[in-house]
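Notes from the 1:1 (GR / supervisor)

We went over the backlog. Supervisor wanted to see one worked example end to end before approving the batch request, so GR pasted a single chain during the call. The sequence is below; no edits were made to it. Supervisor asked that the structure be written out right there so they could see what the output format looks like.
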Amino acid sequence: MSPWQAEQVDTTPETAPLIRPALPADVRAIRTIVDPYAEERILLAKDLVDFYEAVPEFLVAEDPGSGQVIGCGALHVMWEDLGEVRTLAVRRDRLGTGVGHQLLEALLQRARDYRLARVFCLTFEVGFFSGHGFAPIEGEVVDREVYLELLLSRDDGIAEFLDLARVKPNTLGNTRMLRQLD
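Structure output shown during the call:
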């Protein structure tokens, strides 16, 4: 079962996860959630230090009963009007409970709060993201000047967005998707 299969959202306050900014103390739980998907090449594998460096980008879903982290996702700002949803994952025993939906909606709200106009993702889960207003990217998404600036980044996510050949072996089969925000 993929991390994005159709989810039934339970909005009961007692069972709804708390979506909150990640803390450094959450990093090992985040990695535990991400690692099985990385082993299956659904998500990109990351070193522990990369997760620590990205803590400010992450939101986590916390189980209200146990306080355990049950899902995670990050919003990476790519340009003045563009962000990327990264590392969106839910603990396998919580798939189908709406946690992924709630995390994605919170990340999109964060993008709106940053006044971003568009959000990118690279995914195998086209149906999940399509259901949240994302569409496959066709053609150029940024003008030439921005493209040339983005080329200077060493970030693999930006290389994926630009569809550069150097990231192709890691991204084969993934779909580049974009959502316009309201």
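Supervisor's comment: Residues 1-11 have pLDDT under 50 and may be disordered.
Batch request approved.
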